[in-house]
Amino acid sequence: MLIIHFINFCIFRQQLHGISALEAVNQIRSEGMLSLYRGILPPLLQKSLSYSIMFGCYDQYRRTLEGGMGFNVAPAKVLAAMLAGCTEALLTPFERVQTLMLDDKYRKQFKNTPHAFNSLRVFGIKEYYRGLSAILMRNGPSNVIFFSCRDKLRTFVPEHPNLGLLADFISGACLGALISTISFPINTTKTHMQKTLGGEFQSFSKVFLALYRERGLWGMFRGVHVNYTRSFISWGITNVSYEYLRNHLNARGS
Q1: Of 152, 154, 140, 135, whose CA–CA distance to 81 is shortest?
Q2: Band of the pLDDT at 198, cuts 50, 70, 90?
Q3: Residues 6+ apart with CB under 8 A from 96
Q4: Would you say the C-alpha torsion 237, 9, 184, 200 has a positive or negative sign?
Q5: How many Cβ atoms are within 10 Å of 235's Cβ, its own excluded?
Q6: Which residue, of 89, 146, 169, 247, has the fewest CB within 10 Å?
Q7: Which of 190, 168, 167, 179 is nearest to 230 (CA)?
Q8: For residue 143, how many C-alpha atoms fall within 13 Å in the half-sphere facing its CB?
Q9: Domain ranges in the chain?
Q10: Does 159 score more than 70 pLDDT?
């Protein structure tokens, strides 16, 4: 997890400052090794909950839409994926606090993650959900692409008893890398929406256009190479784990 957190740290600094990966590494290294642990708690909590909500709610929504409301399979999958993505957005405070913890500007202001969470209380509950619009724009469409395409993509791997896990890994990894690349400018915009503490809430479009004018199209993708490499590995493992557990539970229930 520490390795993944360091990669996330580098990507965050690239998104925030529009710098190269090497510059991000040097910047983090100059702050000391202890800085690597800053902001590690929110992603630890968020990821475990996020995956549970994403897969669990998707299956539950899909069954309800197909069985209880009479939706056809394809529309049910799309709507269930969108709803699961919106449900995941309840975890926005974790991403919000992680952004503050990873920003060097707040290094002396927040002692640790609980302190950062508590400090936001003075601004009201709305402050915890700064950047919510960007997260909704990312989660819904990303889930639709993932759940609509992963089974189709899996069929491209030749059927073989020993290739089941490989097929699950490849389908999850390729989709994860693709989705993370497509949504990268949204994540960059989210980072800049959430880096502000207090004050005016700026709309997604306003922040996006300001970044685009300042950096250009390529600047909006600073850090994408590291990001899709990380996503390729992590989503491949995630998809394998999900399929294995689902098949195991289905086999026990039958």
Answers
A1: 140
A2: confident
A3: 120, 127, 128, 129, 130, 131, 194
A4: positive
A5: 24
A6: 247
A7: 179
A8: 31
A9: 2-253
A10: no
The sign one gets for the Cα dihedral 117, 2, 92, 65 is negative
Question: Residue 3 belongs to what H/E stretch?
Answer: helix 2-17
Q: What is the 3-state secondary structure (H, E, C) of 158-198?
A: CCCCCCHHHHHHHHHHHHHHHHHHHCHHHHHHHHHHHCCCC
Structure tokens at 232: 């390729």
- CATH fold for the domain made of 2-253: Mitochondrial carrier fold (1.50.40)
Alpha-helical runs (H) found in 31-157:
41-63, 73-88, 92-102, 113-119, 132-154
Question: pLDDT of 10-66, one tens digit each?
Answer: 888 888 888 888 888 888 778 776 666 666 677 767 777 888 899 989 999 999 999
